[in-house]
């Protein structure tokens, strides 16, 4: 499920940042690492296990938000006959992590990088995640290099992955990439991002997949008051995401063919579609009854604030995805990820997710025609539980951060009446959830009946508490 990116901008200090620090204390989130883990990271950074193959002649480039240093992916795109060749290099974290050593045990404990609006808590110590393992420009790095050949329509015709040394030549950000492509100054490897991205978007539509263009939420602070704004994703964000999706689908097919692997699987969440229709109504997003969910989200302009808020709500449509392991040729009965509409695996963000290191090793073994390393086979069945725990932890943090931000936005407006739509009835039945039109806030509401679900009603803000944090309303 796409996470809801939240970022604080404006004053470097203030009640919201103080409250976020307090929230980390309440949730017992420690940004630091134990001394033995830091020592192991320093040793690994100085003595990685390097591959024999050299691919430093390929002019890879990265595309990430400005200022990012934990660079998992680098790419190079070219024409191949009447089709295309996608080279997608992924940071080789296994070159630095000794199985069952301090780094490995800590990564299993954390499972994922955690994100707060004002900072992130990394999976691996920064000396690796922002240094020796990161695909920073001008630095020679070990990587798992995927080569995916596509036909003229963007369909996959061949897949390979192997370890190699690479050297990224340039670090780009989404805005500069979009500008270069739009004004015609992009060279062919970058220009092909649009060509291949558009083709893969059509392939996605044909198979019934859905990619949500979820906007970033910016919390802008002005003299201790707060405003929620949105940064709509650029077309280049989507084209780049298609390459990651392509690689994850290729990894899944490799593992299924090999008979051992770990997939990201997902099924629809019953009853959520009706709730989303109520949310669309609350936000004045037109959604004709004859239009499918996939068509509606695909055609929304995320730069419109009401559409941005609706797309944020759409991240909860599907049931939280699971990780499904299999081995010995005993394939899972339902290997499909519902949003992708195909088998899919996480393998492109090993600096930020534990499972990606396992998936990469299995794919490397599959292509080489050998069994995965012993540490992969020994630890594989425990990975879903570790990722579930990490995902629940990340979800709790995301939810608490959203609650805190909404409380900050409304803290000076207690007693005011807002227009909202009741999107869900709760338990007890006189409680529920209301979606405001402006600001696009979701909160608990009391005093409702079953008949109020789906209705546009006036609600009074009864509390906006940054300490708890929570916002609540009552039927006005």
Keywords:
476 residues, alpha+beta, five-stranded mixed barrel, four-stranded antiparallel sheet, 20 strands
Short description:
The protein is α+β, with helices and mostly antiparallel strands. It is 36% helix and 25% strand. Strands 16-17-18-20-19 form a five-stranded mixed beta barrel. A four-stranded antiparallel beta sheet has the order 3-4-7-8. A three-stranded mixed beta sheet has the order 1-10-11.
> What is the CA-based Rg, rounded?
23 Å
Would you tell me the overall average pLDDT?
92
Measured between the Cα atoms of the first and last residue, the distance is 34 Å
Give the strand tally.
20
Helical proportion?
25-40%
What's the quaternary structure here?
single chain
In DSSP terms (H or I, runs of 4 or more residues), the helix count works out at 13
Strand content: 15-25%
How is the largest sheet built, in terms of strand order?
16-17-18-20-19
Inertia-based shape: globular
Low-confidence stretches: none
The largest β sheet comes out as: 5 strands, mixed, barrel
